[in-house]
Amino acid sequence: MSTSFPSGGFGARMDPDAMWQAFEQLRSTFEKKVGSRMGRGDVRAAVLSLLAEKPMHGYQIIREIEERSGGSWKPSAGSVYPTLQLLADEGLITAEESNGRKTYALTEEGREVAASEGATPWADGTGSGTGTSGGTTGTGTPGADRRATSGRLPRAGVELAQAAAQVHRSGTPEQIQEAATVLDEARRRLYAILAEG
Length: 197
Known about the structure:
3-stranded antiparallel β-sheet; 3 strands; 7% strand
């Protein structure tokens, strides 16, 4: 991302239009990263992993993937339902219709395949929205926490940009100046976090 931010921060030296453009650039950059697209094999791995926990219907699978990826990945019904049909054709899952919904469950062969495939796509860098900062996760893998929380920072950046844009559009000159001061402090604190580690 190329930055057009002034080295002195967002104080009085930056005009409001330039601040607005900087936040729009930040927002669009983070939205591109947050809305990452996963491959077909990732949908398959995610479905197998979720069904290894408990039987679910298609909409539950979509919701669970979105939740576990921290909102960074929400597969469409057009990718989940064909994957479910393929898994059923392969004999890895069964479908039982109840109350107008099909609930999918793994067969014994499906359980073996799910166990052999191991890691879930949201644990491979898409961000689960859970975890802590620094150290390792329960996997003992260095940097695993960074991957586990990678979806949180872009989302927080987008939300910060949206709040700043709202202050810019609706705030009084005093509120805009106060917001710029808050953003300057946030920028300094973010760099301080990097300096500590």
